[in-house]
Write a structure and sequence with these properties.
Strand content: under 5%
Mean pLDDT: 80
Largest sheet: none
Order of helices and strands: HHHHHH
Radius of gyration: 32 Å
Number of helices: 6
Number of strands: 0
Helix content: 55-70%
Length: 107
């Protein structure tokens, strides 16, 4: 058994696949020489979408709250409240806060 295992380990992956296919009758040596052989499948590796590099190590919610807080000159807790009210959408939170800030100008 050890000699068979050693021999099996020395085979390349292609050889192992060919041997297994022959064993199960999926590929005969006569088929390999014919022109009717199907072309090899092309493997396409999926590519991950480019993710912009973050400048901060803060969690995204905290970073958004700090940005809104500094940009609109409001307390960070108010920025968090606006983010929560806007379903953690930066644009919506800014709109909510801007509406409130504009409303307070008239008072």
């Amino acid at each position: 058994p050890q000699a068979a295992e050693t021999n099996e380990e020395e085979l390349s992956l292609d050889d192992k696949v060919a041997r297994a296919m022959d064993k199960f009758g999926l590929n005969s040596s006569a088929d390999a020489d014919t022109e009717e052989q199907t072309p090899a499948a092309t493997v396409v590796e999926p590519t991950a979408p480019a993710v912009p590099e973050r400048k901060s190590n803060l969690p995204p919610e905290e970073e958004m709250a700090q940005n809104i807080s500094s940009d609109l000159n409001v307390d960070i807790n108010i920025a968090y409240a606006a983010l929560a009210a806007g379903n953690w959408n930066d644009e919506m939170a800014r709109s909510i806060l801007q509406y409130e800030l504009d409303s307070m100008k008239d008072i």
